[in-house]
Amino acid sequence: MKALRTLTILFALALMCLPAPSAAAAEKPFKLDICAMPEHESFIFWYAKEQGWDKDEGLDFQIHFFQTGMDQLEALPAKQWVVGGTGTVPILVGALRYNTYLIGIANDESWVNAVTVRPDNPALKVKGWNPEYPNLLGSPETVKGKTFLYTQSSSQHFGMSEYLKALGLTEKDVVMQNMDPAQVLAAFDAGIGDFAGIWPMWLYIGMERGNKLIYQPGDVNAVLTLTLVGDKAFCDAHPDIVVKFLRVWLRGVNMIKKEIKNPKLAEQYHRFWTEWAGQDIEPQMAKMDLEYHPVFDIDQQLAIFDDSKGPSQVEQWQDKVLDFFASQGRFSPEEVKKIRGSGYINGTFLKMAAESIKEKPLGGYKLD
Question: In terms of domains, do 158 and 260 share one?
Answer without folding.
Answer: no
